[in-house]
Amino acid sequence: MTSRTITHPVEVLTNVAQRITKESNFDLQAPVITTDEIGILATAFNQVLHRVKCLLEEQQASAFRQQQMQEAPLLQSEKMSSLGRMVAGIAHEINNPVNFIYGNLDPAIQHVDDLLALLQTYRQKIPNPPLTVQDHATEIDAEFVEEDLPKVLQSMKLGTDRVRQIVLSLKNFSRLDEAETHAVDLHECIESTLLIRLSSKNMEDD
C-alpha cells in the first residue's frame, strides 16, 4: 500500500506526459492529487505545459503575421496587374470606335465646307429661289445652320481628340507591354496621371 501510494501519482504524471508527447496536446493537465513533492512536481509540470502552450501560440501568431507580410506584396502586385489588364482592355475597346469617328471627322468637315460653298454659289446664281425653298430655309433656320454646323463638327473633333488623349494616358498608365525596366519620360507620366485624375474628378462632379 505504501509503495502504491508513492508510485501511483508518479504513474499518473508519466501517463499524462506520454499522452502530451503522443498527441501534441498541451491543453492536458496533470492531476495534482498530493501535497508532497510529487504534488509540487505535478503543479510545476502543469505550469511548464501552460508556458509551452503560450510560446507555441505566440510562435504560430508570429509565423502567421510573417506569412501575411510576405503575401501582401504579392497580392498587391497581382491586384495592380489585374487592374493594368482591365485598364488596357477598356482603353483598347474605347480606342477603336473613337479612332473610327476621329478619322472620319476631317472628311466630314471638308464635305460640309463643300456643301456650304455650293449653297453660297446657289444663292449668288439664284438670288430669288422658289417660294417652297424659301419657306423650308426659314423653317430650318438655314442661316443659323450654316453658321453652327462647322462649330459642331469642330467641337466633335476636339471631344474625340480629348478621348484619344485619355485612352493613350490609360495605356501609358497600364504599361502591360513593357516587362523590362527602362528610362521613361517623367513629364509624360505626370501628365498622363493628371489627365486621368482630372477626368475622374469631372466624372465625380457630374
User: Level of helix content?
Assistant: over 70%
Let me know the number of strands: 0
Q: Give a quick account of the main beta sheet: strands, pairing sense, barrel closure.
A: none
Order of helices and strands: HHHHH
Poorly predicted parts: none
Identify the overall geometry. Answer: rod-shaped
Beta-strand content bin: under 5%
Distance between the termini: 93 Å
Radius of gyration: 42 Å
Label the structural class.
mainly alpha
The mean pLDDT is 77
- Tally of individual helices: 5
Description:
There is one protein chain. The chain is an all-alpha fold. The protein has five helices and no strands. Helix 3 packs across helix 4 (142-174) and helix 4 (142-174) crosses helix 5. It is rod-shaped. The mean pLDDT is 77.
Show the helix and strand layout.
Blueprint: H1 2-23, H2 37-125, H3 131-140, H4 142-174, H5 186-205
Helix pairs in contact: 2-4, 3-4, 4-5
Structural features:
single chain; about 210 residues; mainly alpha; 5 helices; rod-shaped
Q: What's a quick, concise take on this entry?
A:
This protein is 84% helix and 0% strand.
